[in-house]
Amino acid sequence: MEHSYWLNRWKNRQIGFDQPSPNQLLLSHFNKLKLERGDTVFVPLTGKTVDVAWLLGQGLNVIGSELSESATIELFAMLEISPTIFEWESGKVYSSDSLSVFVGVFFELATEEIGSINAVYDRAALVALPEEMRFRYTHHLIEITKAAPQLLIVFDYDQELVPGPPFSISRKEILEHYSAKYSISHVAQKEVPGGIKGIAPAQECAWLLENK
Q1: Most-buried pick from 87, 101, 119, 192 (CB within 10 A)?
Q2: For 95-116, how does the pLDDT look when each residue is reduced to its tens digit (9 = 90+)?
Q3: What are phi and psi of 172, to 5 degrees?
Q4: What pLDDT is recorded for position 212?
């Protein structure tokens, strides 16, 4: 899946993954990460999700990574924040006191850029990537966040009924990605209204990844 695919999705407003209200599994289970005000959460493939507004409202700092500059501009506009814009090695950073988004290729980010991370919130990243990219993604995410604990939200459905994205991520695959570094708990799931693309019945599942 080329970068142009996602850039074209934003250009053509094919952003059905963008939701009007914070994710319910986030609201119900984020407290399991046991963060304190002032801690920093990394949100990969940030887009312009309203989940960021909710995280900021909890007194947390948010660091994001996003390929699309237009999505990042829309995010700050939605939040009514005027960012400072500066360069990093592979793109631009849109930054304010409590929110910074690195615009560019996720795989080029390093720990030195994002700094110390207390937790990761992944609702839209792992499920957006085809299978051949997912192991590279999870390896890099673990590396740059120094295996920070995660709240991971994925979809589980019959991939043969409809192609991704969003892709279906099984329990087996999550264990393959993360069990070497984390204790993994399935904390909740709920039915996706209308299924995936109105075709495939699906469950949205929340997983808690804690340091061993």
Answers
A1: 101
A2: 999 999 999 999 999 999 999 9
A3: -60, -45
A4: 85
Sequence-ordered list of residues with C-beta below 8 angstroms from that of 5, at least 6 positions apart, any chain:
none
Contacts of 69 (CB under 8 A, 6+ apart): 91, 92, 103
Segments making up each domain of the chain, as ranges: 3-14+21-211
Q: Region 121-150: what's the mean pLDDT?
A: 96
162-189 pLDDT per residue, tens: 988 899 999 999 999 999 999 999 999 9
Closest to 125 (Cα-Cα) out of 146, 142, 100: 142
Q: HEC profile for the chain?
A: CCHHHHHHHHHCCCCCCCCCCCCHHHHHHHHHHCCCCCCEEEEECCCCCCHHHHHHHCCCEEEEEECCHHHHHHHHHHHCCCCEEEEECCEEEEECCCEEEEECCHHHCCHHHHCCCCEEEECCCHHHCCHHHHHHHHHHHHHHHCCCCEEEEEEEECCCCCCCCCCECCHHHHHHHHCCCEEEEEEEEEECCCCECCCECEEEEEEEEEEC
Among 126, 105, 131, residue whose Cα is nearest residue 4: 105
Model confidence, pTM: 0.92
Structure tokens that stand for 4 in this block: 């142009």
> Is residue 57 within 8 Å of residue 78, measured between CB atoms?
no
Side-chain-side CA neighbours of 97 within 13 Å: the count stands at 6
Q: Is CATH 3.40.50.150 the classification given to domain 3-14+21-211? A: yes
